[in-house]
Amino acid sequence: MVAMTLLVYSQKFNNMEIFIQSAAQISIQNPLCEDWFENPIIPTLPYNRSIEPDYKQFISPIASRRMGKLIKRAIATSLSALKQAEIQELDAIITGTGLGCVENTEKFLSAMVKEGEEFLQPTFFMQSTHNTISSQVALFLKCNGYNCTYSHRGTSFESALSDAFIQMKLGKIKNALVSGQDEMTPDYFNMLGKIGYWKNEISTDILRNSNTNGSFAGECSAAITLATEPKEQSLCKLQDIELLYKPSKERMQQAITNLMEQANISSIDAIMLGLSGDKKNDDIYKEFAQTFFADKPICWYKNIFGESFTAPSFGVYTAATCLKRGIVPQHLCYNGQNIQDIRTILVYNHFQNKDHSLILLSKC
Which of 141, 148, 314, 348 is deepest in the core (most CB within 10 A)? Predict the structure, then answer.
């Protein structure tokens, strides 16, 4: 239905350009900065929690005490991204989250068991709902515009980005704050470990040459701003996005061709893939690269950010940063040396080989 709506209006808005103005992250890398680009922290453990910034510069200590970790991360990354983009009036807040505030959900459920469903704290209940992230950010920013949350497991962020892209193409909004937000608690990590989600040992070589299933866990809080007018600090241009469900090779090839034709781009300089060291997961990416871009450099990002439901937001953030700087550093190159003078990147992700996404970015 959404695709049909966009098709109806595409002729009217087909000349509108959309730019990624800024981005901010809190993750297992140093927070709210781009140290990961030149001096990344190389994970060595299967379970990694985010490095927390000093939240006092964003949230008062009194308000902070009532917020879960993910809420604080969402507010900090959102404020940081908006400050970089110099956006004063925000039209939309759209969030993708696979599981929402897991930590507060666990606290609420544990209290129900221990207290016999009595004397429960309403804060834990309110912050256990998935859409509380967008709501809390909107309340904090006093933004009364379009507000939506997508919770589609591994395609949550792409769904949020697609919504913002369509709303802007239809001319309904001029800018948007789009984010991917997820956390990993010890209990949830242990539960997923029992079904083979994680490796016991982690290194770059293990992830690159892995013949076994499992990756390593990270946490995700990445916020990007979109706008229809470019600025000097704009990271890149968001050319198009395509979401596909169980596509055939022919359908995938057609989608790639359509993206490039609509963007008037003749070639792709590199592809950014969600390679994670999980053999079953990575085989899909390697087949994609071999089938459609056999001669193109492959980039990856989960080797420094880890695996989570909204990890693809780091893929877009990483690709946008590379385009702004015009280079892909060696630690982000899966099959070669650093890539110079890069102008176009196709970000490809899949979730369980069912839901696939193609996001085409180009240099401003």
Answer: 314
Q: What is the mean pLDDT of each run of 10 residues along the chain (364 residues)?
A: 46 75 98 97 96 96 90 97 95 96 79 74 71 93 96 96 96 97 95 94 94 96 97 96 98 97 95 97 98 96 97 98 97 89 97 97 96
The total of other beta-carbon atoms located within 10 Å of residue 214's CB is 22
CA distance 181 to 260: 30
The DSSP secondary-structure symbol of 60 reads: -
| Residues β-bridged to residue 22 | 225
Q: Residue 32 class from Cβ within 10 Å (0-12 exposed, 13-18 middle, 19+ buried)?
A: buried
pTM for the full predicted model: 0.93
Report residue 49: phi and psi, to 5°.
-100, 155
Name the residue among 292, 307, 305, 281 with its Cα closest to residue 346: 292
Domains by residue range for the chain, with CATH:
16-227 (3.40.47.10), 237-362 (3.40.47.10)
Could you tell me the sign of the dihedral formed by the alpha carbons of 70, 71, 74, 75, in that order? negative
- Computed on alpha carbons and rounded to an integer, the radius of gyration of the chain in Å comes to 20
DSSP letter, residue 200: S
Q: How far does the chain reach from its first CA to its final CA, in angstroms?
A: 31
Query: Residue 350 carries which side chain, given as an amino acid letter?
Result: H
- Cα distances from 312 to residues 12, 123, 220, 275, in angstroms, run 30, 29, 9, 11
- Name residue 241's beta-bridge partners: 359
User: Would you say the C-alpha torsion 302, 154, 31, 47 has a positive or negative sign?
Assistant: negative
318 burial via Cβ count (<10 Å: 0-12, 13-18, 19+): buried
Give me the helix-helix angle, 102-115 and 186-193, nearest 10°.
Answer: 100
